Amino acid sequence: xxxxxxxxxxxxxxxxxxxGIEARQATRITYRGKELETASAIVDRGGIVRCLSRKNxxxxxxxxxxxxxxxxxxxxWTCARLARSAEPIELAEVPVVEEVIxxxxxxxFRGIPMGEKKTLAEAYNLIALQASPKIVDTKTIYSDSFTxxxxxxxxxxxxxxxxxxxxxxxxxxxxxxxxxRVGEVPDRRLLVEKGLLRRVDGHKPYxxxxxxxxxxx
Length: 217
Prior knowledge:
The protein has helices spanning 2-10, 69-82, 114-129, 204-216; strands at 16-32, 35-53, 57-63, 98-101, 135-153, 158-176, 179-189.
């Protein structure tokens, strides 16, 4: 990806140009009561190009297909030349930056089958459902996402950062006669870098907490 971005920028005629790309993979599983309500997985990618004509101004173009990158850079350059600036635009001098910030995970959740993630969400949901006969409804959500941000500029800078996130949330509704209470185990980002995204039997501290919250309702 870095080479593709650099090659596209190398042919740009702008005084300065930069490309930003965001690629994301995400999974979401939702249980409501005993039923599986949602199970989805998405992969999306998009980016933005900015080109500068010092005598005119900035031009911007967005894209979703990387095959269009050279054309989008040319489009942004064309837009920059059509802009009008009262005086020349000068950019501050900054050093070239090259940095890659990888994700640190004991187990990469992108490689975990959807069925295993479903089992995890189902187990949390079952804990809430069985906590008390007063429980009348639950909503359990498992979601994860892995985002990679990439930035390249015509002056040679390149920055890449990975941002993983995994979350489990459970909302419990209990009824005692006319008294209805709703409790939530707040969304919390599982510390994937410490390997907490494991099988259900590796989540006993979280299971116990969910059980206590459910029983308190």
